[in-house]
Write a structure and sequence with these properties.
By secondary structure, the chain is mainly β. It is built from no helices and eleven strands.
Length: 114
């Protein structure tokens, strides 16, 4: 069955960096676009970044453009989110999403605080 397992979250100071990883299994990862979303308490889950199946095309929310980079390694069935210049407002639970299967990972908490 489809599985998505996020890792790499944690506590970081403003201006710092984190790299999130999503390990995918149970489907042909290289065939499908993938996304990262984030959610804060009481709010809807928001799209952060999308990447096509080959990784050739990416798209970002305006709030993270120039700071975050989505990438993938199809040989390893891994999705990544490099987050630089982190701000307190980036604090959220970050989720990996496979739209083709409407499947979410369990999420990883990112907290940006001094």
């Amino acid at each position: 069955q489809v599985q998505l397992v996020e890792s790499g979250g944690g506590l970081v100071q403003p201006g710092g960096s984190l790299r999130l990883s999503c390990a995918a299994s149970g489907f042909t990862f290289s065939n499908y676009p993938m996304s990262w979303y984030r959610q804060t308490p009481g709010k809807e889950r928001d799209l952060v970044a999308v990447i096509t199946s080959t990784g050739a095309v990416t798209r970002y929310a305006d709030s993270v453009k120039g700071r975050f980079t989505i990438s993938r390694d199809n040989a390893k069935n891994r999705l990544y989110l490099q987050m630089n210049s982190l701000k307190p407002e980036d604090t959220a639970v970050y989720y990996c999403y496979a739209r083709a299967y409407n499947y979410w990972g369990q999420g990883t908490q990112v907290t940006v605080s001094s």
